[in-house]
Known about the structure:
Layout: H1 4-12, H2 15-27, H3 32-36, E1 45-48, H4 58-66, E2 71-74, H5 76-84, H6 91-110, H7 127-142, H8 146-149
Helix pairs in contact: 6-7
Amino acid sequence: MQTDTERKISYYNSKGWKTLSKLYKMYHPLCDCCMVDNKVTNVQDVHHIIYFDNQKINAKKYMLLTDEDNLLSLCKDCHAKIHKNFAALSDKQQQFIIDKELGIKKKYDSLCIPLDYSNIHHKMDHEDNYNDRLNKILLDKSKGDCDKMSLFS
């Protein structure tokens, strides 16, 4: 049985991911974070905004793996900052990523597909703002009938 690390390496070395990331880079050739600060930098990496491996159900993992809305084009520098030192990004870049995260959550919540957000790597760096905005989205969700309709609970 593969470990989590072996499974991730296996996915990122797969033909499917290589094709998807190549196509994504072709249609998104510049670093999304750099563009927020009016800088032009070529894309080098494709990043998953909401991490897929936290999901307990394989269908959810696959959706997050392949959902174009869950991807960002990044240069090496911005990609490293996102994973290792989120606070090193500019305030505008941090807000851009938070907004992208929240947009994806809202999308999946509106489809009544609850995701596991317990290990989002940006969370610790902007805890108050993050929690305030996430709570608003969760309150909006609770006003609907998603709990009754969810296919993936």
